[in-house]
Structure formats: C-alpha cells, structure tokens
Design goal:
Layout lengths: L1 E5 L4 H12 L3 E6 L10 H5 L3 E5 L7 H8 L3 E4 L6 H6 L1 H22 L3 E7 H5 L18 H20 L2 E7 L1 E3 L11 H11 L4 E3 L5 E2 L1 E3 H11 L7 E5 L5 E2 H12 L6 E3 L14 H7 L7 H10 L29 H12 L9
Parallel strand pairs: 1-2, 1-4, 2-3, 4-5, 5-6, 6-11, 7-10, 8-13
Antiparallel strand pairs: 9-12
Organism: Saccharopolyspora karakumensis
Protein name: NAD-dependent epimerase/dehydratase family protein
Length: 356
C-alpha cells in the first residue's frame, strides 16, 4: 500500500511511519520540520520504503506531490497544536489547521485518493463535557480556536465525502504520550514531568492537582490510525481514549516512581481556562475499528522514561516541572509562519506549548 503521512516527522507521525514501513507499506512523509525531527525517521528511511518531502501542508506544491504519489491513504497529522497560539494568533492557527486540511482534501480529490484519516482532538472539540467519558454524541463545545479549527477540519472532509466521494475517518485523540514526545514544546505533560525529574529541575502542578486527563500510549494511537485506514464508517468520528481519568497529582506520582525521584511538585495557582476533567469513551472505536488500548499508564510511563536520556542524576529532594494540558490532544507540526508567531508568544510569557 502507498501512503502519505503529513506531519510524519513528529512524535505521533514518525511512530506511525515506523509502523507502516515495518508492515511493508511504502510511505511518503510530508513535513516542514518546524517541529518534526529528521532523526525520528532514520529507521524508516533505512528500510528503503520511506521518502521524505520537506513541504508545508499549506503549500500549492502539495497537490503535485500527492498526484505523483497517488497514495491509497493519506494520514493527515500535520497541525498547529498549541492551544494558546490559537487563542493569541487565530489567523495563523486557521491557516494551518483549517486551510491546510482543505489543501489536503483538495489534493486528495484531484489525485483520486481513496481515503483520508484525520487526526482530530477529543479534548478540544468537546470542551467541558457534561458527562464523562465523552462519547461521540457529546455536544461539541470548542473552548479555543484550536478546537474550532479541528472541528472545521472534520466538517470540510465530510463535505468532500458528500460532494466528491472522498472517504474519511476522524480520530478524536485523548492525551497522547510516549517516546519522541518533545518536552520543550509539544505539550506532553508526561514528557515534561519525566524530563524535569530526570534533570533535577522543578515540576509544577496548577491548582489543587485534581484536574484529570485521559492518557493513551502512542503505540495504541498508531494502531487506531492503521485500523482506520481499512475500517470504520465513512465520514465518521471515533474517540481514541481509554475512558480512564488520571489526576495531575497521580500522574506526577507515577512518573516520579518510574524515574526514581522524589514526588514533591510545587503547587501554583490554577490557570484560567483549564478544563477540569477530560476522558473519552472509546466504545465506538472498539466496535467499528476493532481498536482496544493495550498499554496501561504505568507500563507506558515506564517505556517512555526508559527512552529518555539520563544525563543528570535525580536529586534526593526536589520541588518539581510543569502543568497538565488545557485540552487533550496529540499530533505534529506547524508551518513556519505559525511557528514564528508561537515563538514570539512563548517569549512573552505564554508558557509551554500545550495540546494533544
């Protein structure tokens, strides 16, 4: 099978590329490397079945690449993933997350692509759900421009299905974590806590530590993408979550145990806009896709920590390093213009990038 993975050099994207090449598929990666790392693709490129195109998903050249490749499936993971950037720079966010998705859909239409599997956001599109875990029928209440853009991406792809017969499946991801997640900017709180504890830096809990999120290991998320390439109802959203809520405080404790560091985070005032609780009901994905999360949180944290460099021994006593995301989310890369805006925002005190 010939495939394209947009955002394929990122955390989830590169893990998906590895899986696809191991399964014998040919993969074309589209990434502008504003966040993605070329070394994430070393193993895949070594198979001879991975071709890399340094390209932005908003580029007019995208159609040329897609038409030349004529893939069976496009896995669309490229995105501006920072919620705060979307709030402060909504036009930049929409350029990537809305127009970029439309560009992918239009390229797929022109090239006669059979299917697009889209990385949506479970936490961002549902917002503060009335009941948890949130099912696909939960009212859609995006609380950020990022969430609105992800929802718009679903709607645009569904429209292409109705007008042009483009098959599409949307995966609404809970909080992804695992090896390759960048603690410096991808908003993965597991990576942030683990790196800080390993390096002897501080870790922070915002509020009382009782905010909850639903954590899904990256290999389980990749399995959902692979299954969605062949299964699922057309133009349908599937939640990819465990349905289990984990508090920020419990997460910190689990990571401290895995690292072998003192479990002593510093508490800071709650942040405006943080969703109190989030979890996704994955029942539809189980029934339609045959997907089941297999890696529990303790094992996933162990695997994640094992892949991190241990350049500094953990101190005997610590005050501790970062917060939980405002929304649940997960993929990939930004465009250069959005990345510059993001950098400017972070320089002015808007904190670490948060999403997925």
């Amino acid at each position: 099978m010939d495939t394209i993975v947009t955002g394929g050099a990122g955390f989830i994207g590169s893990t998906l590329v590895d899986r696809l090449t191991r399964d014998g598929h040919r993969v074309h990666v589209i990434d502008n490397f504003s966040r993605g790392r070329r070394d994430n693709l070393a193993a895949a490129e070594g198979t001879g079945r991975c071709t890399v195109h340094e390209l932005d998903v908003t580029s007019t050249d995208l159609t040329t690449v897609v038409t030349d490749v004529r893939p069976d499936v496009i896995f669309h993971l490229a995105a501006q993933i920072d919620v705060r950037v979307s709030v402060h720079a909504p036009l930049a966010d929409a350029m990537v997350n809305v127009l970029g998705t439309v560009n992918v859909a239009e390229a797929a239409r022109k090239a006669g692509v059979h299917k697009v599997v889209f990385a949506s956001s479970g936490g961002a599109i549902y917002g503060a759900a009335d009941a948890l875990p949130a099912a696909e029928g939960t009212p859609l209440r995006p609380l950020s421009q990022y969430g609105a853009a992800k929802l718009a991406g679903e709607i645009y792809l569904n429209t292409y299905h109705e007008l042009h017969g483009l098959d599409c499946t949307h995966l609404a991801l809970a909080n992804a974590y695992g090896p390759r997640q960048d603690h410096r900017g991808e908003a993965g709180v597991v990576a942030v806590f683990a790196n800080a504890l390993l390096m002897g830096g501080p870790t922070y809990l915002f509020g009382d530590g009782g905010n909850t999120r639903d954590y899904v290991y990256v290999d389980d998320i990749v399995e959902a993408f692979v299954l969605a390439a062949f299964r699922g109802r057309p133009a349908c959203r599937y939640n990819i979550g465990t349905g289990v809520q984990t508090t920020d405080r419990a997460l910190h404790s689990a990571i401290a145990v895995a690292v072998g560091a003192a479990d002593q985070p510093e508490h800071r005032p709650a942040r405006f806009g943080d969703v109190r609780a989030s979890a996704l009901d994955g029942s539809a994905a189980r029934s339609d896709l045959g997907w089941t999360p297999r890696v529990d949180l303790a094992e996933g944290i162990r695997r994640t920590v094992a892949r991190l460099p241990r350049t500094v021994a953990p101190p005997q006593r610590r005050t501790s390093g970062v917060s939980s995301p405002s929304v649940a989310d997960g993929p990939s890369t930004t465009t250069g213009s959005a990345r510059r805006l993001e950098t400017d925002l972070l320089k002015h005190g808007d904190g670490a990038a948060e999403a997925l």
